[in-house]
Amino acid sequence: MDWLVSTYSHLVSRQNLGTTHEGRKIEALVIKEEASTTKPVIWLDCGIHAREWVSPPACLHAIDKLIENSNSVDPKQNLLAVYDFYILPVANPDGYVYSWESDRMWRKNRRPISGQQSQAPGFSGWGGQWGGGFGGQQTSSKCGYGVDPNRNFPTNFHQGSNNPCDDSYHGDQPLSEAESQAVQRGVQIMKSKYGEGKIAAFVSIHAYSQFWMSPFGYKKDHSKDYKDHMRVMKKSIDALASAYGTQFTYGPISEVIYIASGSSVDWAYENSGIKYSFGLELRDRGQRGFMLPQSQIQPTVQETWAGLTAMAIAIAPEFGITCSFRGKPIP
User: Fold this and answer.
1) Beta strands 41-46; 84-88: pairing state
2) How many Å is the Cα radius of gyration of the chain?
3) 96/318 Cα distance (integer angstroms)
4) Do 280 and 304 meet the contact criterion of CB atoms below 8 Å apart?
5) Is the peptide bond before 221 cis (omega within 30 degrees of 0)?
6) Which residues have CB under 8 Å from 301's CB, separation 6+?
7) Which of 35, 104, 127, 314 lies at a CB distance of 3.0 to 4.6 Å from 260, suitable for a disulfide?
8) Residue 330 in contact with residue 316, Cβ under 8 Å?
9) Which of 52, 179, 281, 303 is labelled catalytic?
């Protein structure tokens, strides 16, 4: 990140969003071209669940492509001509480091939990229901440490797991964790700088299962923007599939997976008013799961960027980008 900021200082700056329990900085990169008018802004975050190792590379690839294409004459490539981006490559740095050094299947952050229970942990995944064999083991470490930052947001928080042994333990109160607070702060900063209604999209990138998902997660009701969500997601997954043929399922979180409370996507949509709030689950569909081979990282991030680009183009008219990118028609 230091190299990117120093090398591309005309495009890249850093935004400190907080500090973890273990003292690591939670930093986003701001990618933008100077313009005479205020452009809409897109938020991407990756790595909020520690073991989802293919997620951070997706954010890093997005940063790389935005910089690489900043001088492109192709209207479908240089998104910086019409959007600014806030990108948080590793939203849970303590958990991420722990998954490399101690427990490959660690999901939560690493804050010690007082008054721990001795119940058996639940399954993992978005709703704490996947992968008993992927980190569902009963360990004192799991019961004594960690909150799932993606269950720590206020939206229907009370329905989440209150068992500290669960991979999806929601914490003792909403926004109690440095990681969820960092995401909140990022959105607050964007609102203060860009104004209400200028955050074009909020995208949280996970793995695995090949899903592109919209609100709601905490209830079965369709959102008021359901039709627009479905339209944009269809364009996104079609573009993603065009890269390597990878097929994604799309729809509301509660339908594609199951009920999941306290997620950042529902919070961004319902509490923060960001219409296009999406959660992605990248490759694969469980063949290798969290242990995705290194050989699949590059195609995964490339197809993800194709989907994100299609999303940005699809929502552009709603933000005053009605006919062109740098004077060229949007297809």
Assistant:
1) parallel
2) 19
3) 36
4) yes
5) no
6) 54, 57, 58, 60, 61, 62
7) 127
8) yes
9) 281
Q: Are 43 and 276 in contact (CB under 8 A)?
A: no
> Any catalytic annotation for residue 281?
yes
Q: Average pLDDT, stretch 27-43?
A: 94
Q: For residue 57, give both structure tokens.
A: 């590379």
Res 275 pLDDT > 60:
yes
Tokens (6 digits) for 160: 């989440």
Predicted confidence (pLDDT) at residue 325 exceeds the cutoff of 80:
no
Q: Which two tokens stand for residue 224?
A: 């008021």
Which single residue is written with the structure tokens 């009920």?
Answer: 259
Q: Rounded distance, CA 101 to CA 51, Å?
A: 11
What is the identity of the amino acid at 80? L
**CA gap 82, 70 in Å, rounded:** 11
What is the reported pTM?
0.91
Neighbour-count burial of 331, counting CB atoms closer than 10 A to its CB (0-12 exposed, 13-18 middle, 19+ buried):
exposed
